[in-house]
Amino acid sequence: MVIDGDLLRSTVGAHVAAGAVPGAVVAVASGGETQVAAVGEIRGDAVVRLSSMTKPLLAALTLTLVEDGVLATDDGIERWIPELADRRVLRRPDAALDDTVPAERPITVDDLLTMRMGFGLYFDGPCPVLAEAASLGLGIGPPDPASPLTPDEWIARFARLPLMYQPGTEWAYDLAFGVLGVLLSRAARQPLDVLLRDRLLQPLGMADTGFAVPAHAGDRLIPCLTRDEQDRLVTFDGTDDSRWNAAPAFPDARGGLVSTAADYLRFARMLLAGGRADDGTRLLSPASVATMTTDHLGSPPRSPTVRALLQDSGWGYGLEVASHHGSGAPIRRYGWAGGLGTLWYSFPDHDAAAVLLTQCLPPPAPLFDAFLSALHHALDA
């Protein structure tokens, strides 16, 4: 089916007109057609900071190495990151840093992909170990490519900390993909930015995507905005002085990429096609795509932190997995959002994908909700 792009543009346009964001890019791939449209003060080929929409790309990159036999999802990560062997684990996530027990087993590659490494964001109250991680400069919060730490320095500092949970037991957001980026670089013996470019970005034709703004696309980077105490939009990261203009010391697999709507749809179409790029090149097997886009969490009791980020959804490899129950059959979807104002979901049963790009911290939640509701309505009809 072909999703009605006019419906999505009008939905987004109402929020732009109300001042939620100055502009947005709406992009849809469905029915063999691709539509990219700018709404408000933005251009359709705008370069934006993806933030956490980086994670699905790095999960796919991991699976290319799995298929080549470079690593396996059940491998212990200490094979490449000996700094994280023999972990200690806090008795409870908010315990004092010296109140620990031994880890019951090593961290695996699968633990990183599913974010069950045992360390991540914590919203249930004060957390001494997370405060210590912030003081060590590990990047707790919005992505910052200006960090001076190299991958080896970053992992050495992370290794000073105990885990918050036993490996494999609890979903904890974000930090696992920082570790994953270090592992991928070491396993492939290449810098992460080079590995990602060679294995995924170039084969997909994603020329506007990278850990720094490509030289040819510098005039298309738009500012990222945030709201001040008076609820006015002010600059969080500019254009000429953007922190994304220079290659980072630490290419951050958690959220370091920039991209465009057209580029991200190339990645989304590859997954919908069972791992084939638009030109027919196979990058992943259908089995790998299925593993990546299948829920790995099940329905265990959920902490307030998990409910805040996932609600009732599941988690695959680097992305959310969910179903919408409307008037017809359940609508399956997978995808993820970025904390600097980006959103992507694919609907495999409808061979459709949609991307919404803004640049605003925090993301405009009512706009995101309205966009997803409009998509569900179009597919349900």
UniProtKB/TrEMBL annotation:
Protein origin, superkingdom: Bacteria
Xref: Pfam families: Beta-lactamase
Annotated GO MF terms: hydrolase activity
Domain Beta-lactamase-related: 9-368
InterPro entries: Beta-lactam-related, Beta-lactam/transpept-like, Diverse_Enzym_Activities
Hydrolase is among the record's keywords: yes
Keyword field: Hydrolase
Name this protein carries in UniProt: Serine hydrolase
